[in-house]
Each structure stands twice: as C-alpha cells, then as structure tokens.
Fold:
Amino acid sequence: MLWCVGPFLRARLHFAREIKGQPGVQEAVAFVHRVLARHKVHIANSPWRGLPELTNAGGEFCNGSCEVQAWSMACLLDVYYDIEKILNNY
Structure:
C-alpha cells in the first residue's frame, strides 16, 4: 500500500525535529527527498500524472490496482506541506 509511505515520512520529520533539532531536520528532509525521488519519476512518467493504489515489491506494477489513487497522492502532499512548515519555522 503506497499511502503508508506518507505517514512514515511525516513521523520521520516530526521526530527529527523533536529529538535532534535543526541538524536532525536537515538530515530527515534529505532522507524524505531521496524516498520521494522515485515517486516523482513515476508521476512524471505516468499518463495519469499520479500514483497507484498498490504496488508489488520494489514498486513494481500491481495488476488490478487503480492507476491513480487520491489517498496515495494526498499522503505525499501532506509530507511536502510538513517540510515547508518545518523549514519555515527554523
């Protein structure tokens, strides 16, 4: 389930800020950008310009999955919102 990535990344950002402060935030933001890089590639190459509902291991295509899932996209947009909010507070 792709949507799980969003809450995981948001938690990573939250706890980096709470526990490690500014150095931890910078490290967490870099980690989040590395994780989201593959998602950006998929969105750019998708005729639907979106993310699927499900994937197989390693992000491989899952037959029968919805090609674009609003929840998958929304969870990752929440991550970008958190990054912006965190970076503007430092």
Remarks:
- Residues 10 and 81 are 10 Å apart (CA to CA).
- Helices lie at 5-45, 70-89.
